[in-house]
Amino acid sequence: MLFSSFRVLVAASALALGVQAAQAQSRPWDTIGRDATRAEVKAWDIDVRPDFKGLPAGSGTVSRGETVWEGKCASCHGAFGESNEVFTPIIGGTTRKDIETGRVAALVAGNPSAPQKTTMMKVATLSTLWDYINRAMPWNAPKSLSADEVYAVTAYLLNLAEVVPADFTLSDKNIAEVQKRMPNRNGMVFYEPLWKASGKGDVKNVACMKNCEVDPKVHSSLPGFARDAHGNILEQNRVIGPVRGADTSQPPPKGPVGSAPPPKAVVVAAAAPAGGVDAKALLNSNSCTACHGVKSKIVGPGFNEIAAKHKGRADLEAYLMGKIRNGGEGVWGAVPMPPQAQVGEADAKAIAQWIAAGAP
After folding, report:
1. Does residue 69 contact residue 153 with C-beta atoms inside 8 Å?
2. Residues 61-89: pLDDT tens digits?
3. pTM of the entire structure?
4. Which residues make Cβ contacts (< 8 Å) with residue 336, sequence separation at least 6?
């Protein structure tokens, strides 16, 4: 009798395990997608560590870097990396003494000699500079630079900061030696509590959990004249996700932050293709909209503004085609437009016709 009961118990346990296994195998998400191939993983695995693991083989000279810089980088960062019109300067604020000590003196607490902090002042690891250029630059065409071009551009920036000489060639073979001359290589601080779960936190405030007071006071604000300096921020946000930019075409809200209803996403209607060519699709595929809004300035002027400025010009279409493919400078201020040689003649003509028609 005892043996029979034991057999029933074993059978029941086996049945229960079988049901659980069947349920585990029938999870609906198990049939979705597939394992990534080695080639797909390799394509995404492009990060470079501080010890330079992950750095691809290659090299680039300072002179080659200057050529790439002028064609693809200077429009946002200036010819010498010191422009402050679009982004914070990359070069400046470091000295030869900093290169010797590995600590930028202007960053030492209480030193007021550098009111603005440049990239070269702050970055401690050369791998960070190389990695960011490789994955995110140029702004309007990220990941479009070859490994040799990234080496060259990095070498050019290092030369501007007097880290390497003008005839230097940066490569995966000597980059670790160049790291030893980074102006702020000794500026990193290891804050242990952020790395140890058992350590003390970096803040000591007690979080309010109920009946919390709301501070309605606005502690900082953007001046009205600068509110739409880069166009309507709302139109420059993705329509996917919860983040919505402020509608900077409207006056700032008067109530406390968060009291106004969230703005609705702006979806720009697609223009009807003229002659079978969708001009707005061409703008997006060539990353023109990274620097130009349709109605307002981002880095360069809005397309409506360009159309209005040159309205009535007899050779407008040819003029615009020349500007698109060859670039230009001085018409809209000090920031130059780099040549967009990758835009074919037919595509440049379609974009020019669209702008000449008023950029509808």
Report:
1. yes
2. 999 999 999 888 988 898 899 988 778 89
3. 0.62
4. 74, 75, 327, 328, 329
